[in-house]
Each structure stands twice: as structure tokens, then as C-alpha cells.
Specification:
Strand content: under 5%
Distance between the termini: 29 Å
Oligomer: single chain
Number of strands: 0
Number of helices: 3
Helix content: 40-55%
Order of helices and strands: HHH
Length: about 60
């Protein structure tokens, strides 16, 4: 069974949205998918999601590898 997904409106500054569009394109994601990815990573790194905790002794880029 698929997870239920919550839809809600999000207002962004035009400059931020353009930056997200470029970044998402670089990662072959939609803007919506990339925002969800970024939020999930931030929440995970903050220890707010169940699962493995990031190693605080490693920089963020290295702890994911």
C-alpha cells in the first residue's frame, strides 16, 4: 500500500524558486520532489525521523556515503 501524501500550498520567493528549479534539474528531479528531498534530509539530520542517526563527527556530505 502506498503512503498517503499531504498536499498543501507553499509560497516561495521567486529567486529561491528559480534556484530550486536549477538545482532540481541538476539532480533530475521535479521542483516538488527536490523540495521534499531537501526537507526529508533536514528532518532526518535533525533526528526527527525514525531510522539511522547521522554521525555528528563527520561533515554532512560524508555521513550520507
Amino acid at each position: 500500500m502506498a503512503k498517503e501524501r499531504k498536499a498543501f500550498p507553499l509560497r516561495l520567493d521567486a529567486e529561491l524558486h528559480q534556484a530550486l528549479e536549477r538545482w532540481a534539474a541538476d539532480e533530475f528531479r521535479s521542483v516538488n520532489g527536490h523540495i521534499e528531498y531537501l526537507l526529508r534530509e533536514a528532518v532526518r539530520r535533525a533526528g526527527r525521523l525514525p531510522g539511522p542517526k547521522p554521525n555528528p563527527s563527520l561533515p554532512a556530505e560524508e555521513s550520507d556515503n
